[in-house]
């Protein structure tokens, strides 16, 4: 038990847990994107999928685990950031740490923006606190019209632009973290080279484009809003 405690508080333990929680969050995002892309198959498809999710007996277990993973990821990231700053209190006169990419240095800032995005996003589509969202259950289908909530929300330019900007920042954050994720988890072997260098970043680009296509399609009128049948 003490060994586990020591591992968790050690810098390497923190990195491994950050990588594992990041990997789980990434898996959630892949599933979330695939689910939301059902918006292109029409109102009934997305609403039926959302109905299945909302009525799943494991919903609260899933929500609790995701929240825990997110908190763990954020707390460990902040700890790592503060430790790094403490270890190097004087900033370089010249920017010599060339091995750090621009996105690596801005991970903590993109992380804070992503956290704020998730808070807004839950208020918008899960809690229905934004004026374009209604969580009323349709009397005939007995479903919440998630499709209309998504499409009507994204027809507002301010909301669509906010989502597109946030999704781009999320894409950059993931693009940087995907390589370090594999490296931290020990996939250094040259057999994994292609996966780490090409396949993983390509997957992040596809994921980001998939997400962004939704607000853009709604904003430019490619997703019709229909009255629920
Ligand atoms: C265009 C992109 C996105 C769309 C259309 C979308 C859509 C939705 C919808 C409709 C819900 C409510 C589900 C429900 O209560 O039935 C939801 C919940 C959620 N979304 Fe997204 N989402 C998008 C991007 C993201 C991103 C990038 C993240 C994370 C960084 C994210 C994280 C979440 C979380 C944590 C929830 C709460 C889950 C729950 O209610 O159980 N979403 N999203």
Features:
3 helical TM bundles of succinate and fumarate reductases; 229 residues; mainly alpha; binds protoporphyrin IX containing FE
Describe the overall structure.
By secondary structure, this protein is mainly alpha-helical. The protein has a single domain, classed as Up-down Bundle (3 helical TM bundles of succinate and fumarate reductases). Helix 2 crosses helix 9. The protein is globular. The relative contact order is 0.12. The structure holds protoporphyrin IX containing FE. Protoporphyrin IX containing FE binds next to helix 2, helix 3, helix 4, helix 6 and helix 7.
- Indicate the mean pLDDT: 87
Strand content: under 5%
**Regions with pLDDT < 50 over 5+ consecutive residues?**
none
How far apart the termini lie comes to: 56 Å
Distinct ligands, ions and cofactors found in the model? protoporphyrin IX containing FE
- The level of helicity is over 70%
* CATH fold naming: 3 helical TM bundles of succinate and fumarate reductases
Count of alpha/pi helices: 9
Largest sheet features = none
The CATH class name reads: Mainly Alpha
Integer count of domains: 1
Judged by helices, strands and strand pairing, the structural class is: mainly alpha
CATH architecture: Up-down Bundle
- What is the N-to-C succession of helices and strands? HHHHHHHHH
Radius of gyration: 20 Å
Which descriptor suits the 3D outline?
Answer: globular
Number of strands: 0
